Amino acid sequence: MHLGISYCGIALRYIGEYSQLFTFIIGCFPYNAASHSAKHLREFVNKILEEYKLQLDSTKFVVTDNEPKMLPAYREQCSRVGCADHYLNKQHSHQQQKLSQQLQTYSETRFDGTIIMLDIFREEILGALSEDQQPSLHRVIPLRQYLMNKCEVKEEDSAAIIRLEVFLGKKKIMLNISQAACRIKNAWHITDHHRLSTILHPKLKNLDCCIDEKEKSINVLKQEFEKHKLIDSSSCTNTLHLTQSNVQSSSPASTTSTTPKRKNLYVTMF
């Protein structure tokens, strides 16, 4: 026996004299009719409208979903319009049946489907880059480039995939540049730390995954080596002066010399 509470949402839309659309949310009301039949549903809606001195007639259009009970509920004294999203989903489902290969997972048509798919990728990225047992900074550039590559429109892509890629990004017809790649490039910034950790990684040092970052990474690495050379040179000079001072102020038997340990750049990053 179903004991849950059902709700009925009613909104009013009106087109003004200059084709302006006005939307008013009347409310979301607990459905307390005797049953969910078409007759009781129509009576419930009419009762709510009467409270606002409104009524349905042949000049009014009612937009509902395509549930079977909606058809008889709004067959009279109004013009019913079915939900376009449901129609598209039904057509999509019929097309799916004609495919030679069936999809393993199927996602219904929805307005935020793209956002949901990107959220899944975002969760995977956050999981990969939040690793606390081993380094993960070197994975940022390859993962970023992977997502950008997937947004590029290819000749073998189907029309649906191309529309999705164009929606995600900035595809210019003549230049065939993906807008998604541009957006990702502008929003997902790469720092010198990312470049250093990638070029120092044994498997990624050639930066085959992202040629655009190769020259920048090499320049950053050169700059870091120059910094370390200056630090080592300064450290050796200070140690030499300190040793000479110790030799002059202490006996030969008690004189000890220590050589500073050079800090490896690779160890610093990893």
Automatic annotation (TrEMBL):
Keyword field: Coiled coil
Presence of keyword Coiled coil: yes
Coiled-coil region(s): 204-231
Highest taxon of source: Eukaryota
Protein name per UniProt: Uncharacterized protein
